[in-house]
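Class prep. Sample record?

___
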Amino acid sequence: MWQIVPPAALPTEAASATTATLTGGSGTQVASGSLYAKKGAPLTLVVNTTSDTFCVKLSGDQTGQLNTNAALVGKTTWTFNNLKATDGDGVRTIIATAYADTSCSSAGPLAASVSYIADNTGPLVSGAVNPVPNAAGWNKTAPVSIAWSASDAGVGVANLTPSTSSVSNNGTTTLTAQATDVLGNSAKGSATVELDTQPPTISASRSPGPNSNGWNNTAVTVSFSCGDQGPSGIKSCPSASTLSGDGANQSVTGVAVDNADNQSSTTVGSINIDTTLPTLTGAPASAPNAAGWYNTPVTINWTCADGFSGIDGTCPSPATINGNGQGLTAPAIVKDRAGNQTNATSPGVNIDSTPPKTTVTAPAGWTNQSVTVSFSATDNLFAFWSEDFAGNVESARNVAVKIDLTPPTITHDYLPEPNARGWNNGSTTITFDCKDLLSGIASCTPPQTVTTEGQAQAVPGTAVDVAGNTADDPASVSIDETPPSISAVAASAPNAFGWYNAPVNVHFTCADALSGVASCSVDAILTSDGANQSVSGTAVDAADNSGTASVTGINIDRTPPTLNGAPTTAAGLEGWYRSDVTVGWTCSDALSGLNGACPSSSTITGEGADLSAAASVSDLAGNLTTTTVGGIKIDRTPPSTTVSVPATLASGWYAGPVTVSLTAADGLSGLHATFYSIDGGAAQEYSAPFVHATGGSHTISFWSVDRAGNVEDATANQLTLKIEGTYSVDQLVNINCAASDAESGLASTTCQNVNQFAGTYQVGSNTLTASATDRAGNVGHGSTSFTVTVGLASLCRLTVEVVLPPGTPTRGCNVLNQVGASLTATQKALFVKAYDAWLTTLVGKGLTADQSSMLVRVAGSVS
């Protein structure tokens, strides 16, 4: 390198960039006047500048630099090829700054800018479910259709697959659709369909059951039990319903509804209730005599009726009252078809079927004293008289004799009457009914009220007639006022949070210390999801006392929580990541709630084409959901590129053009592209072996990019090619000359290595020769030829190298810039003259006369 002092008083010129135009290739699209591009899409930038521009530098979204450095003439149009769109989304601005020197360092640059919109996000995909789910999120009719739609904030949607989906299977189904925009960015959207086409089940039972005639004489309770074979679960199940009114063919209907609003109903019909006793009356078939007496058996005819269930059978047959007595009655019983029983007694009648009988006691024969005659009669009234032997008849006289040898009768009634099992559940009054058909009742035990509890408590009654005859009634009463005990307990305990995730069985236990248990509720099973549910049961004892017990606060949640995951960042080039992928999780539970927080984000490490992350979440009821996010592609390893060239000469040089072959491989995502550059120049995409023919020593850097965007380190992949051949005047001619002798050895050689500017040689063909002599006197000769070329660009570079330190702007290059690429003879003469004049001003100021002559000589060969 010549060391020279820069010339003084040469002003720095201020270049300016006037316009910048950006176009794109595959992966770009113009929409609404804006250029959209996805990551990696090729961009071409054309910058128009003033003619005194020698360098243009890019900043902002893109970096790069172009300079003339090849001629002493500036340029007005600068084209940047092989720019690549960057990642992310939004407006990206490229600033192009023009400089008046070849190193882009002069003061006062003026810039132009141009923008494009980076679009690396796929369309937004959503699905509309039809029919629209109910408030609980369920559908009940199949098929359920999903109409997919996509929107894109950038260049618009190119395609959407599928456009519609259909779900016919019961359960929770999540479907996805994928949309791609015009640039090729893709994204997925999902929609969840919860479908339950199966109606719930409902069964009913009645308590108590009907008798053999199909009737009840007490209230009837209808209870319902519901379940759901489908996935949605029971939303509502009817509570028990009690019918207490009299009537035939009554019914109770219950409807079960699941969370999808499917319904099932059941009806318990033919409920016949009759709580009213039948009527029963009796009457004598004939009337008594005027004294109110009968002297023959009395027939009692019975009349009965029932207004609801009807008489069970027929009215009682006529009854005959035999025997003698006063106030005699006949009992009868009638039942209706519901089991209600009426006990009736006929009106009292007086019967005396025995003729009176009189005996007399008197002395036999004659007597001389007063005689007492005694009569004995079996009736109450008789007449007596005497007659002597003379035929005198005494007038008849009457005497009443009252004789009653029959005990009175005594019966009793209860108020209230005991139930069918013979029990009362409150204070009971026993009223005694005393009757005597002859002498009449002298005393009868008054009504007795029993208030104490006990079974078969004795309440005796006594009847005494006027004649002193007595009769006893050993009545008793059973009273139980204490309700039975009933306890309710769930067959299993809830978890620590108070929740179940399965049906809950509630068991009832009943007991009664006195009359005993008549009925106890059967076990109840809760199957519906819900909070704070309750179940009640009833115990009834033989005295019809009832007790209830409930289990409350039953919380059932059989539905697992939802858990969804997705990468927190979008995949890069062609759906691949180059580093750890974070999967974020979202979860929810509509009933019991989550047991803790959603899972923390998962980090997927390593490499692979189908990596995944899994997470689990449970709700407070213990339902567990595990979700896996798969299909994650990570490739961290750059591709590997090797180079293949022919072997060099022994000197390490090539004698002519060299074919360069590049081979790249990538073990995971696959190869995207291979690039190379020559001497640090612009990157060129490799498609096939290429020929490098430029003479001199040149460095070829090469690298590859895989589909994940990993870029191979080009600094480790460099090939230096030394080609003997053609040199531009600004290049160094680097020729090594070597001589050898394998036998006697070298005695002398004219071999010299060459390392100097090509401009020091003649423009055109040059030949270098050398010889060597061994110690035996043998002489060998060798030669090499090369060609020197010159153009405006190479002359400019040579001028800068010879005249001034690198990067210093020169007036001479401005002159070259104004000449143009093609010269006429006149233009060439004017150019050489102007160039010579400029160099003359520099002789002695760091430029020697020989150097000036060399430059003028070379300039004269520019064509």
Confidence is low (pLDDT under 50) at residues 1-14, 806-812.
